[in-house]
Design a protein that fits this description.
Mean pLDDT of chain B: 86
Number of helices of chain B: 6
Number of strands of chain A: 14
Number of helices of chain A: 5
Helix content of chain B: 10-25%
Strand content of chain A: 25-35%
Strand order of the largest sheet of chain B: 9-10-11-13-12
Radius of gyration of chain A: 20 Å
Structural class of chain A: alpha+beta
Distance between the termini of chain B: 43 Å
Low-confidence stretches of chain A: none
CATH superfamily of one domain in chain A: GHMP Kinase, N-terminal domain
Low-confidence stretches of chain B: 214-219
Oligomer: heterodimer
CATH topology of the largest domain in chain B: OB fold (Dihydrolipoamide Acetyltransferase, E2P)
Mean pLDDT of chain A: 88
Helix content of chain A: 25-40%
Largest sheet of chain B: 5 strands, mixed, barrel
Shape of chain A: elongated
Chain lengths: 291, 298
């Protein structure tokens, strides 16, 4: 990823700040910046959400489509992640510049959602071995202000929470041809259970200590970071080490501990926010980007 | 709903940054909007002629001087003027010059001949100096400088021929809209609270711990003390200043020494990290606004 250019003196300042547990904006090492979530923001997607984490802006849309299940997993639906790094976010994403980062994010998400205790793909099955729902999760990175992974995972979880899968009125097989009848009522839909879906927590090692939710400047001071996928119950589903630095065993264990406890907190806060959003009902005012 | 470390808000409870304005809001033109039906005006910045109409090419406010019509954009890059104090970041080292990012459309130039080299005022710049350029300033370094000249294409030529300009050491850089910086006689301030700020006309603001000039010889050097640790008190003051300036900028309030000091004082009831919350930011901006207003009346 494109790193911000910083002078040595600025880096020293950030480093000492992290050491003293008082960062440039007054946060402690384990404090997140205020996050804002909005669901139901793209009207022609089945589910959508936008997350703003200080200067990081992420828009996620979910599309549902009917597909045939893979032969090895006939009882499961499909879930696909696609990340698009807009060149609006940083000029480094121009052309194919953002591709590597995009693949990294989508691979991490697919790995995190793969586990069956995390997300029930069987609920997306229509006719075993014949038809299933496929969810296309499209992630658009609009602005890049540090800590992309965490923001993306929050947005993905909110968008899947918001996704409305049409109910199937009847499904029959007639001589090998599948006949599906979707419900006529647009308000007749099923929602997906995301209560055990993970969020990603990135711990960035700056100097000897690790911080969460780094700003773009802080990311430039770090050599290595660890991304954890943590569920609400505190289970760590996936880990990913980014950057070229190395980690000591003790540091890693310490990071896992901190990350897990923060992941639980994140999941709780997101759940509360999503409930609040849902309580507003169908006709809530859309804020989007303009206000 | 406020968790200890994580705080997730929902959009409909969003705080909108508005401070009361005493003047009526001017009419804002959007790009492509017709300004006047007759093309009998002189076309200037932010406008173009399309058929019989004069149209706006940027979003902004119409200004008119006799037959000259232009649109002053709401948001724009920095347009330099001679004598402006700017803060910039070196992006490239070239032969005889550095390229500096100053938030303008084009990178600015800092010629090796328009800076004070270490070791005396009157010294010829030799070939050796040119070879040592990266020793003085390298990519990523921050400098404060003054605009010496503006070229035809709008790019700037900078100089640092005064002891108050030069390489910046430890501190925090902020970026705001250039239009928010109020033009003053002095853009270098040593605030009472224990930090110094440089309000660059280009919208780059530098916050640093106050340096005792008598002991350490001014900011205009090229020496950096990377071993020095900024004390906790100074760090807190700097972080608070940073958040206050961002709070004012979010409410589109103009930035100068008085407004910043007032915001700093009004923010004391909050913890530094609480100032990241939109609601508290607005509160600080409003309090500052009222204090400035009441002062203007008396």
């Amino acid at each position: 990823m494109a790193l911000k250019l910083l002078s040595d003196a600025e880096k020293v300042f950030i480093l000492h700040g992290v050491k003293d547990d008082f960062r440039c904006d007054g946060r402690t090492r384990q404090e997140y910046r205020p996050i804002e979530v909005e669901t139901e923001i793209v009207s022609n997607a089945s589910g959508s959400a936008r997350v703003r984490l200080a200067n990081t802006d992420i828009l996620v849309g979910v599309k549902t489509e009917i597909d045939t299940p893979s032969p090895t997993k006939p009882n499961e639906g499909k879930l696909e992640f696609f990340v698009d790094c807009s060149a609006n976010a940083t000029p480094a994403f121009e052309g194919r510049g953002g591709e590597e980062l995009a693949t990294e994010i989508s691979n991490t998400l697919s790995k995190a959602y793969l586990c069956e205790t995390v997300f029930d793909l069987q609920s997306l099955c229509i006719l075993p071995g014949q038809q299933c729902w496929k969810l296309y999760v499209d992630i658009l990175i609009l602005e890049c202000g540090g800590n992309l992974f965490d923001g993306v995972s929050l947005a993905v979880k909110s968008a899947i929470y918001n996704t409305k899968v049409p109910r199937i009125a009847s499904a029959t097989i007639d001589g090998g041809v599948v006949d599906l009848q979707l419900s006529d009522d647009p308000y007749d839909f099923q929602t997906l259970d995301v209560s055990s879906a993970p969020v990603l927590v990135t711990l960035t090692k700056i100097g000897e200590r690790c911080v969460v939710d780094p700003t773009a400047e802080e990311e430039a001071c770090s050599l290595v970071s660890v991304v954890l996928a943590v569920t609400e119950k505190g289970r760590c589903v996936t880990t990913l080490v980014r950057g070229e630095g190395s980690l000591h065993e003790d540091t890693l264990i310490d990071m896992l501990k901190v990350g897990t406890s923060l992941g639980i907190e994140m999941n709780k806060a997101l759940k509360a926010a999503l409930k609040l959003e849902q309580s507003k009902g169908e006709n809530k005012e859309r804020f989007g980007f303009l206000k | 709903m406020m968790a200890e470390n994580v705080c997730i808000n929902v959009a409909y409870q969003r705080t909108t940054f508005t401070v009361p304005i005493s003047q009526p809001t001017p009419r804002i033109y959007t790009p492509g909007e017709v300004i006047s039906p007759h093309a009998g005006f002189i076309v200037s910045h932010g406008t173009y002629i399309d058929g019989d109409y004069l149209k706006a090419s940027v979003a902004g406010v119409k200004e008119q001087v006799d037959k000259l019509v232009y649109v002053r954009p709401l948001k724009n890059r920095y347009n330099g003027e001679i004598g402006d104090v700017v803060v910039g970041r070196v992006t490239e080292v070239q032969q005889k010059r550095w390229k500096v990012d100053t938030n303008s459309r084009l990178d600015s130039n800092l010629l090796i001949s328009s800076m004070n080299l270490p070791g005396g005022e009157l010294r010829r710049r030799s070939v050796e100096d040119e070879k040592m350029m990266r020793k003085f300033l390298q990519e990523g370094d921050l400098i404060s400088a003054e605009v010496q000249n503006v070229f035809d294409d709008g790019s700037l030529s900078l100089h640092t021929r005064s002891l108050k300009y030069g390489k910046l050491s430890q501190g925090i850089l902020l970026t705001v809209f250039p239009s928010l910086i109020r033009r003053r006689k002095n853009h270098f301030h040593d605030l009472h609270c224990g930090a110094s700020i440089i309000l660059g006309n280009n919208g780059f603001i530098w916050i640093s711990p106050t340096i005792n000039t008598e002991v350490e010889g001014g900011a205009g050097g090229f020496t950096q003390n990377l071993d020095k640790e900024v004390s906790m008190e100074e760090r807190e003051v700097m972080a608070r200043l940073r958040n206050c300036i961002l709070a004012l900028a979010a409410s589109k309030m103009s930035l100068y020494d008085t407004s910043i000091v007032y915001a700093f004082e009004e923010s004391q009831k909050y913890k530094v990290s609480e100032l990241l919350d939109a609601e508290n930011m607005l509160d600080v901006a409003l309090m500052t606004y009222h204090r400035l207003e009441s002062q203007e009346e008396t």
